[in-house]
Amino acid sequence: MEWNPETAQFLSQCFLNTLSPLPEPRRRAETALAEASERSNYGLAVLHLVAEPSVDEQIRQSAAVNFKNHLKARWDPSPPREPNLPALNPISDPEKALIKSLIVSLMLKSSPKIQSQLSEALAVIGKHDFPKAWESLLPELVANLDSLTQENDYVSVNGVLATINSLFKKFRYQFKTNELLLDLKYCLNNFAKPLLEVFKRTVNLIDQAVASGAANAANLKVYIESQRLCCRIFYSLNFQELPEFFEDHMDEWMIEFKKYLTVKYPVLEDTGNDGLAVVDGLRAAVCENIGLYMEKEEELFQKYLSGFVEAVWSLLVVSSTSSSRERLTVTAIKFLTTVSTSVHHTLFERDDILEQITQSIVIPNVMLRDEDEELFEMNYIEFIRRDMEGSDLDTRRRIACELLKGIGMHYKGKVTSKVSLQIKNCLGLFSQNPDANWKYKDCAIYLVVSLATKKAGGSSVSTDLVDVENFFGSVIVPELQSRDVNAFPMLKAGALKFFTMFRNQLPKTVAMALLPDVVRFLASESNVVHSYAASCIEKLLLVKDDGTRARYTAADISPFLLVLMTNLFSAMEKPESEENHYIMKCIMRVLGAAEISRDVASACITGLTIVLNRVCQNPKNPIFNHYLFESVAVLIRRACERDPTLISAFEGSLFPSLQMVLANDVSEFFPYAFQLLAQLVELNRPPVPQHYVQIFEILLLPESWKKSANVPALVRLLQAFLRKAPHELNQQGRLSNVLGIFNTLISSPSTDDQGFYVLNTVIENLGYDVISPFMGHIWVSLFNRLQQGRTVKFLKNLVIFMSLFLVKHGLQHLVVSMNAVQKDVFQTIVEQFWVPNLKLITGSVELKLTSVASTKLICESSTLLDSKVRGKVLDSIVTLLSRPEEERVLEEPEVPDFGETVGYNATFVHLYNAGKKEEDPLKEVNDPKQYLVASLANLSAASPRTYPQLIRENLEAANQAALLQLCKSYNLSIV
């Protein structure tokens, strides 16, 4: 794309139309720009447009945004996430060079809004090219910075500093590597001194403005912002380790840092929040810098420490009372917390200091503010994320408690005493006037919950601040028993959170007496309250006694099960809780624990189907939807196990919804739908109903297998059909279609295990007379993979497949079918692949299958394999069986939690409750170890002295000893 008047006109019109309120011209313009962006020099042309002073400012600003996004996408484009999406054309090297030569000077000449976009664009380039592929950048920025500060053009100075800040941010979050340290050294060599110079020059300008008494607010504002940016760059350059230059000039930095924490700037601070926010931004940056030095260079920093602690302390006492100064408050408290956990913790030892901390810093910051109430009411998801899920580390409430924990590391008794007294005072104030002073009770509950200590590796918590049962009875129970579920919702939420957190410590009788009240709170109008009620019930059902036995059983839930389920489904009808995953997770957990009667099952499948039909219209909450499908799966599993006649009723309810998923191409739900269909197929008794056969036909179409995320669920469904309707395979060439699917899956390392699942199910469920015409095709596919790209996973699966074939259809068929493809290949496969990979098999069923099959191989192959090969097979069997097996988990594990990473486009998500039970193809063999020694004993009795020699010559010494021990254990001998 050449820069000429026609191009300028075309781009100007397009960018103007992108600002149109009308959708049609806006869409046309966006499409035209997307097409133009594929042409070479497009980015350069847009940059020329941004630089054109005759073009309207709004158009140039829109062009600057487009330029930045163009660079993000194409400077160093990543491969597309979806395989069917085309890769983006990268910007050519000559165009890159021209852009880099122009962007700095253009950025500095631009208006603030355009400058901001170009600064971000420059940072995008810097992320990939700086410093190695753009060595001229930093010297150019430094030269401009020097001239701009001399001209007192601080708007442009701050533009340069903001750009450098973006470039240097990588030193804060990237792992320390030699390459990173070399980049850091380059930046230090070129910018440590200029940074100090611009910082000191700005110090003088601020001091002069303040001293003259005629400080101009606008000028002072840009100076203060400049110092904030210098502080952020200081933080980046010092983050990895303390550079020598900064150590040599520490006084110059620290003196000014302390000044900014102690000096007031009335012309900014007293004229509205905007000015105060600018000054507080600088102070917060200073707090982060001194916190960094406290963590990394405590010894060097020691001489400044007491002065900074005093300055931060004084600042906090004032800022803690203001709701608009959160960032400053949080960073200041973090600094004090760092000091409290260091060797200088004695600064917090005195009783009066602790008293002041709890009264003047902790209580004001833990007390609810108007913005907390607003968040509670207007954005319940964010409130819960902060309050219950621990993302509130950078909020006042949490960080104030972290300070107490820090001090408590060395002065636990004193902290406990002071905080306990504050809790008592808060509850006393509440009791004087509950309606007016309810926030004091909330503060008391929050302190107990936030300062509780979690036991490592478990869900139990403990506290020394209060007696849990007494506090629960006197403070929490009155809230839970309140008849008005909508009164004082934040207190109700706090009470439910306390109940949830201390659920392990509370006796079952106490909890059971209050469970009906928690069920009532599901009817609360507050999204937070009914979410916390659902979470409380869900977590109670996970409590275990003695680490294994569920404390709350189906019998405990039965008396109020119907009202519980009714309230849970009703809660999802409340505004903004239509897709509340706390409620759906609770439904899943209750259905997994309760005794599901026919009435409950009918009501629940109706409710879940209604929800499923609704979310099919617009799937947007993957966590909620996952728990929805888990709930359907657990309901099917548990209800139909108890009453098989429910299967047809469930099919009647679910089939229309599942058909809608498939017909409307709701691709996000395909894996779930296929897993549920597999579950239903497996619950049916043969013959499988006709409507399933229609699905079977769809399943065999190659198009169904194109999306990788669907493959595991499709395999699961295919296995269900193969088990339940094996006779259907002989009709209409279906077995050929199934083996075609196997062939496709086995050819790729990412899906070969799924191919083996299909193949194993065919081998297990069909007679040899049916599969024998296809065995040549099967072996050719497997041998091709062996030659072209075998992996350990593939080899283990191959051993399992051959073992299954041997025990189901006999050694003779195995050998003949393999050697028919290639002469004597069987012995080669045994020597090169079976023997070395047998010892790698894991899983109890797989271990039994492969060890028994290998034992049969030894016993039945004396004419096929020489004694050395059979000896090596035996050595591998003993290695496999003499390893300590993992203890078998008798009870089902809990359904795993699904965090924010659950998505639609990435990978298949397994439905735990729709999983198939593992089939044992050798139910007649109880103990593979006994089977081995008994088989060897019988074999050796027929050929005395043959097997002791085979064992001596081929088994490792440890395996000879292990085999001898096995013989003793079963009172058998090899002669």
TrEMBL record:
Residue ranges constituting the Importin N-terminal domain according to the UniProt record: 29-109
Any GO molecular function: small GTPase binding
Pfam family, one: CAS_CSE1
Entry GO CC: cytosol; nuclear envelope
Subcellular location field: Cytoplasm; Nucleus
Main location: cytoplasm
Top-level taxon of origin: Eukaryota
Keywords: Cytoplasm, Nucleus, Protein transport, Transport
TM region(s), chain numbering: none
InterPro entries for the chain: ARM-like, ARM-type_fold, Importin-beta_N, XPO2_C, XPO2_central
Gene Ontology biological-process entries: protein export from nucleus; protein import into nucleus
Annotated PANTHER family: EXPORTIN-2, IMPORTIN-7, 8, 11
Similarity field: Belongs to the XPO2/CSE1 family.
Name under which the protein is recorded: Importin N-terminal domain-containing protein
Source organism of the structure: Anisodus tanguticus
